[in-house]
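Reading a protein record of the kind used here takes only a little practice. To see the layout at work, look at the sequence and tokens printed below.
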Amino acid sequence: MLAVRDQRDRKAFGRLYDHYAPRLKGFVMRSGLPAAQAEEVVQDVMLTIWHKAALFDPHRAQVSAWVYQITRNRTIDMIRKERRPVPEEIEQDNAVAPDDAGQILAVEQETRYLAQALAGLKPGQRDAIEKAYLGELTHQELSTQTGLPLGTIKSRIRLGLKRLRHELKGMR
């Protein structure tokens, strides 16, 4: 690891990869992710190790502890991404024809309520929700795009959705 950190030694990194990749894949799969996602996590972890090697401090942690901590965090991120909350859908009445004027009016009214509720959110929450759900960005992509920590992005989305649910409760 020190050769990777200090000299950006590709051969040393190859040995690290050969040693840790199969172990990490097993570790991730025991967390409940399928093989394909486990491989994706391992690739991401190894890429992170290469890019963040300068942050490794042998006085603070052993190589294995550092590598497994990165893996654990990436695994949790992947699991959370799979289970991220989605906005609750508004029930549709299938008995009403789609071109029914009453239904069209109701949809327009719901759209206005949603726009008002979104406008009432804090700008950071509104922006995060719009980009995550309308722009279909992952939390990690949002973090990268905005430069904000991943935890901040997740908190803004969670709090914003909670507030939207509260604001739109009367609409149902």
Observations:
- The mean pLDDT is 84.
